[in-house]
Amino acid sequence: MGIIERIKEIEAEMARTQKNKATEYHLGQLKAKIAKLRTQLLEPPKGSSAGGDGFEVTKFGHGRVALIGFPSVGKSTLLTMLTGTHSEAASYEFTTLTCIPGIIHYNDTKIQLLDLPGIIEGASEGKGRGRQVIAVAKSSDLVLMVLDASKSEGHRQILTRELESVGLRLNKRPPQIYFKKKKTGGISFNSTLPLTHVDEKLCYQILHEYKIHNAEVLFREDATVDDLIDVIEGNRKYTKCVYVYNKIDVIGIDDVDKLARRPNSVVISCNLKLNLDRLLSKMWEEMGLVRVYTKPQGQQPDFSDPMVLSADRGGCTVEDFCNHIHRNLIKDVKYVLVWGTSARHYPQHCGLGHVLQDEDVVQIVKKKEKEEGGRGRFKSHSTAPARISDRQKKAPLKT
Ligand SMILES: Nc1nc2c(ncn2[C@@H]2O[C@H](COP(=O)(O)OP(=O)(O)OP(=O)(O)O)[C@@H](O)[C@H]2O)c(=O)[nH]1
Ligand SMILES: [K+]
Ligand SMILES: [Mg+2]
Q1: Which of 37, 175, 295, 360 has a beta carbon 3.0–4.6 Å from 340's, enabling a disulfide?
Q2: How is domain 63-172+237-286 classified at the CATH fold level?
Q3: Distance 64 CA to ligand 3 centre (A)
Q4: What ipTM does this complex have?
């Protein structure tokens, strides 16, 4: 029997099983069995080289955004509108057959946008090009789930389920469960609060299913069996997702209004070029990119050329910033001067652990190097920098 059939069989058994206190251990075990099979399903078949079908696109820019959706919802039309790269669009389904990259230039950063073939129910089990598409979604910093505003709301749930079943978690944070395998000592099970979904016995049973007999488990929230399985599997990808309802030109204003009020949703019309700027700003917000401008001593920063950091990709501390400039820089850094929203006063003397925020300005002060003019005797500059946030404008950059 193939893996997919075995998953189907276990799912059927779960559906037959009544949910109550007596069956909860058994159901938990079945969930773990399915999770294990799904993980097997993700491993590439032996002897096959990965890809080779036009899906591997080199990462480019400061972040990657994937367009995921059913066929003919307008993914390619949207890519063409936002990036200027032409991607064939037509009224028939499966017009797009590979991954097509474009670049969005936004706030002096470059964001890679990927157009992808439409996916359908069963994609995670290999229907259509589902598995390749989902692999691209997993490699992205943000998923734009494109939906046809005139079609059934069920599509959103079907797609979410497909992505979930291959370990992609949309708009969720990792469960607060500490889990560490050990060599000896048995299983230690603890929690920092009363648990209502999982008890010691259930936890043991799940671990047993994974043949784990020595481990430390600490629940820091009232997590579920599914959360525990996610933590044990350890291969889950937590990604932000914006729901993009396209084609609002074909529905009534009341329906548009309802969709627009949903969480993490943006309503657009590619045909009428409606709300695309809102989509871009939402995308920017969700990506959480942090632009940092380097200020050489005695000069104004170049506000058109930021260093782009991100909490998801490498972090936003002063140390991350220095490492971005040069691997060996860090050992020469004495401290940095920071202007911008992360600073309490201008300039603030900060250490390597200081967390930078978008549009901060940083000057590196190296060891054995004196600040220009010395501390407390900053030269003032009368020329205001070209682009700077309002708060920064109030305090012209000195030093
Ligand atoms: N009414 C309306 N039609 C649109 C809009 N955006 C795209 N379309 C149409 O929807 C159809 C499908 O558009 P595509 O961009 O090919 O859709 P897709 O999601 O890339 O489709 P596949 O590649 O086949 O998965 C085309 O006929 C587009 O002209 C819109 O905002 N309003
Ligand atoms: K199409
Ligand atoms: Mg397309």
Answers
A1: 360
A2: Rossmann fold (3.40.50)
A3: 18
A4: 0.99
